[in-house]
Amino acid sequence: MFRPALALLIGTFAAAAPAAMPGVENPARARQHYILQCQGCHRPDATGSPATTPAMANYAARFLSVSGGREYLSRVPGVATAALSDKDLAELLNWTLIRFDPDHIPTNFKPYDAAEVARLRRQPLRTEASSIRRQLVTKMEKDGARVAGNSNSKGEP
User: Does a structural domain hold residue 155?
Assistant: First the structure.
């Protein structure tokens, strides 16, 4: 007698469950890392501050579409030097891209993993980060990606 109602209830909660996030083992942990490591500058909604911190919302995953962009995202100072393990940082990168810019995740997206992050963060970008970002944005513009409202010079995603 209660089975149809139970099935409906279970179906409702299953439908409301978040979509799978490749490379994100624990979304709650990744969110917590975002709050502690990124949100102070990039804001809770990843919109950044035009004068100092680039927006990631509706933008960051575009770097995955240009040569060198994937590496850049792992090597910017705030990422490469984050006080997180390589595994946790890979999860945070994946979560951030999927959470704040799902529409620009390439169909062939390969999630970051601990080994890749370990390799890339050994060569953090420093003063050259902003010039590399400008070069990547120029590549995106040439490829037709619209980057309006995201032109500040700070070298972070």
Answer: no
